Amino acid sequence: MTDADVERGIELVRLRQVTAHGIEARFDLRPGERELVTPGETVVRGAPLVERMRDLRTEVIPGAGAGAGAEPGAWWSGSLGGRRRGKRAGQGALLFRSGGRWRIAAGDPAEPLEAPFAGIVRDVQPGVALTLASTLVRGLLGVDVIGGPSSGRLEILTARDGHVRTSEIDVAGAGAILVVGSHVDAESLTRARAVGVRGIVVAGLGVKERRELMASEQRALAGAHGAPPFAILVLEGALSRPIATPIMAALEALEGRTVAVIPEPACLVFDEPDVELPVLSAGVVRVTAGPLAGLEGRWAGLAGPHRFTGSVILESGWVRFGGRAPVAVPLGDLERFA
């Protein structure tokens, strides 16, 4: 049997993109948050894009204080209050007019949203979203991001199939984005947030951990002093499984470099033109579901229809795991990398 015979049919396996060249990032905004840049403006990494707000609330502008020609989304500053509450200064974004008076979205300034990479501001929609684009940066793609954006130096704490214990996360990781292997528990996430870690890269994050993390983020944002940016990049989904070998190889090549985690698209962004990512091996496939989920092997050709658990007959392919005999795996449970 020739190599061409073995490789035949691999094009039927789902292709998974590992990296993206050129990133257009979208950052959600809330009413009352003030944009500090304009469309077409060029920014460097770390430049403030938006003045974030915490403890957002609505305030009423007395009388016709908004002035003629006022429109929703415009920024307003002036005097608030009345006879009972007294005059006081206020500022915020105009929301709507009711009963002849405008309401604004106001709050207390928090840590600003900083550009995670150098690029051009493509679009600014007050209270909706801001878009930043660059054709020079690259991104390591995941499936979901919680929190963010956030940036820091990349550090690897464990192997691709490892599990980080809470005691392994300490102040030495402050300002870093940590790669923690196949799974991380809620206690480790809480500790990472407390010691100043800026981000986590993990293969799987369970529903319980997501729920507790989101509640913790809400408490941090409502605190008296706010909280620094924090983000979790989930590479696979909710189940605990090893990080794919091609993705782990890319992370190892980036260790010690400054990277950023952005929520949309969900990826790890890096602006390091001198970093050469490892070349992907042809014929390598990975099992994404079923009892063999997470295992990687080499494609050994089409196996045709096979009967699996539950007497279900599915089109399948032969996959060789190590030195063992090839195993038939449903084509829908396989992925290859590009």
Structure description:
The chain has 338 residues and is mainly β. Helix content is 12%, strand content 44%. The protein has four helices and 24 strands. Strands 2, 4, 11, 12, 13, 14, 15, 16, 17, 18 and 19 form an eleven-stranded mixed beta sheet that branches. β8 and β9 form a beta hairpin. The protein is elongated and about 80 Å long.
Coarse structural class: mainly beta
Count of DSSP-assigned helices: 4
What is the residue-averaged pLDDT?
A: 85
Which stretches of 5+ consecutive residues score pLDDT under 50? none
Shape field = elongated
Share in β-strands: 35-45%
Compile the SSE list and pairings.
Elements: H1 3-7, E1 14-16, E2 19-28, E3 34-35, E4 42-43, E5 48-51, E6 53-60, E7 75-80, E8 88-98, E9 101-109, E10 113-114, E11 119-125, E12 129-141, E13 144-147, E14 150-156, E15 176-179, H2 186-195, E16 199-204, H3 207-221, E17 231-237, H4 245-254, E18 258-262, E19 267-270, E20 284-287, E21 296-308, E22 312-320, E23 327-330, E24 334-337
Parallel strand pairs: 1-24, 14-15, 15-16, 16-17
Antiparallel strand pairs: 2-12, 3-5, 4-11, 5-10, 6-9, 7-8, 8-9, 11-12, 12-19, 13-17, 14-18, 18-19, 20-21, 20-24, 21-22, 22-23
